[in-house]
Amino acid sequence: MTLAGQGTIDLTGITFPMLLNTLTIAAGSLTLFYWDELNNPSTLSLAAAIAAADLTITLNAVSAAQPDDFIQIDAEIFQVQSLQSGGLQLTITRGAQGSAAAAHAAGAIVYLLERTTVIPAFVGAFFSSPASANYSYSVFLPDVRVAAAEFYVSNMYGTSPVMHVPYSATADGGLRTLSGGQIALQVDGYLAVQTDATPPFVMDEAHAPHDIFATLREAPSGGAVTLLVRQNSGAYSTLTIADGTTVSNTVNGLGLPPLGAGAQIHLDVVNVPGAANTLPGRDLTVTIRL
C-alpha cells in the first residue's frame, strides 16, 4: 500500500512466491483497517497496564467494540474475542494482522478500527502480462489512518492464502491518507501583538490536519514571536519563531482534533519583541496542510 495524496491510497506491486494457477486469477479482495481521523481524539484508553502476554484488557469507558472487531494500541493491533463487564473489559487476541505483541502502559490510547473491503478485478492471464508489473488500484478514503491491510486473490480453484501487512509501527501509527490542500493565513508588514491578526478562515468541510507551521520574510530580532491558532474560541496550536530565524516549529497534526465543517480558524499574534533596538518580524504566513 502506498499513499497517493488527496485522500487516496494505492494497492501496488502484487507478487507471488510461485506462479502456479496465477493465469486464471479473476479478482482480489483488499480489506483496510483504519482509524477515522475525523473522530480524533479517541476517548478510550487503557485503565490498567498490560504485559505482552495478557489476553484481557480493561478500558476507561465502555466501548462500541464487538467480537471480531480490531483495536489499535500504540503499534500493536488486537482482535476482540469477547466482552465482559458490560464492555469495560475485552478478551483479545494479541499481535493481530501481523503486528508485534508488546507491553502497554496505563492510559495508552485505544483506537477502535473500522474496515472497508474493495474487490479489484483482473482480466484473464493478467499476471503473465507486462502490465502487471505496473499495476495500481486506487482506494479513495480521505482523512483516515490505515493501521493494517489484508489481501488475497481468487480464481476457479478457490482463494489464495491471505497476506496481512501491519502499518501501525510507522512514526504516525499507520498510513495517513489525509485529504490534500492547505490553508494559508497571512499578515503583511511588521507584526504586533494582535487578536485576529487575519480574518477568520471558515472551513467548508471537515479535514484532519497534516501539520502546522509559520514562516516570516524577515526574522525577529531581540526575542521570539509567539503565535496562537484557534479553532472557534478554543486554542488549537501554538507556534514559536525563535529570535533571528524565519521558520517556526512544526506541529504534527497526528492526534489533533479535526478542523470541523463550518469552524472558524483564527490567528492571534501573542508575543513579539517590543523593547528598544528590536524588530518584531515581518510578512507572516501560517500554513495548515491538510
Describe what you observe in this structure:
The protein has 290 residues and is mainly beta. It folds into two domains: 2-176, no CATH class; 182-289, Jelly Rolls (Sandwich). The protein has strands spanning 2-5, 8-12, 27-36, 44-45, 56-58, 70-73, 76-84, 89-93, 109-118, 136-140, 144-155, 158-159, 163-166, 175-176, 182-190, 201-202, 211-218, 225-231, 234-241, 251-252, 264-271, 282-289. It is globular, with a radius of gyration of 24 Å. The relative contact order is 0.18.
* Class from secondary-structure proportions: mainly beta
What is the quaternary state of this protein? single chain
Shape: globular
What is the total tally of β strands?
Answer: 22
Helix fraction by DSSP (H/I, runs of at least 4): under 10%
Strand content: 35-45%
Supply Rg: 24 Å
Uncertain residue ranges: none
Q: What is the helix/strand order?
A: EEEEEEEEEEEEEEEEEEEEEE
The end-to-end span amounts to 20 Å
Features:
290 residues; mainly beta; Jelly Rolls; eleven-stranded antiparallel sheet; four-stranded antiparallel sheet
In short:
This protein is mainly β and 290 residues long. Helix content is 0%, strand content 44%. The protein is built from no helices and 22 strands.
Q: What are the SSEs and their pairings?
A:
Blueprint (H helix, E strand, L loop, with lengths): L1 E4 L2 E5 L14 E10 L7 E2 L10 E3 L11 E4 L2 E9 L4 E5 L15 E10 L17 E5 L3 E12 L2 E2 L3 E4 L8 E2 L5 E9 L10 E2 L8 E8 L6 E7 L2 E8 L9 E2 L11 E8 L10 E8 L1
Antiparallel strand pairs: 1-2, 2-10, 3-9, 3-11, 4-9, 5-8, 6-7, 6-9, 7-8, 11-12, 11-13, 11-14, 15-22, 16-21, 17-20, 17-22, 18-19, 18-21
